[in-house]
Amino acid sequence: MAGNILSKFGNQSDFKALAAALQAEMQKEATPQTTTTTEDIIQIDYDAEIQKREIVEAPFLAFLEAKGRVQSSNSAVIGWRNKKAQTTSKFTPENGILANHDATAKDWEKMLQNMKVITYPIEVTLMAQMGNQNVDLIDDDRQDGYLDISATKDKAMLLGDHTSNANSFDGINKLAPSQNKEDLDGEPISMEVVDDMIDNIIAQGGNPDCLVTTARAARQLTREQQLEGIVVNPQGNEFVPGAWVRSYYTPNGEIPIITDRNLVTFSVDGDGNITEVNPSSEDDCFVADSSGMINKNLLPVSEFNLAQTDLSTRSLLATFTAFGIKAPWKQGVISGIGNGT
Fold it and tell me: Which CATH class is domain 8-82+109-337?
């Protein structure tokens, strides 16, 4: 799969319509039928090879899955509590006054997140299907759709903005606090900048376990580490071979540098040529602590058959998903990264 992402976040009307279809199908399965009907919803069991390809199409999502931060849900709403102020433990005299412990410094904020719906349309003409009997065009598009939906989730987790797209959820770029953001204004990224951001997050109680950035920024960091004589193990932090190519040393040990293609926008012209949209734009680097976020799925990627209105087979891939950052202060964003030339 290459080029622009085709799947999109749906609105609440889309969610309600698909949820109603899901409920109707569940009721149909629970009630004895006197007639045979075509299954409206297909739970897709994707093969292992497709799931491996997800590492390339949606590497940050795959990283969260490996960390156990992607979970199933049985509710249309997920909730958590943000701890807005952190306190630290301290030594106390044997006969110390308990009242001296200031518990009022802690502030918890109740957060709720509704499930969002991401859809991907499938439409293949009858002529195309009959003229390509050696290739299952519908299944081929179904596999691409699964990866495309994964890429949409991946991108939104990093760059999502509910203000600009009411159907989406907010990502790290939106929710990270101002003290955890730095704009390099076109300057190349450096180990000093990343170290300062990591130290800042650790001081607030976070534990960054990955960097997510573009290939350009990753090369800058790798090159500087090599010039400093730091030997990084390109395989040491891989959960799946090929997922992330380099490591970065932190006070808590090595963490992977994940190069994520969804941080760069591509376009495809009429001849199929793929080009980067605005290649001179500045890059971002996300310093992330996976323990401070959660992704829950009410409905895994499933196929909804649509009514046939012409000589084609039409269906819709959809998933119900919610993403929340329960500890924004554990996340950091370095933006405005120049090309370093």
Answer: alpha beta
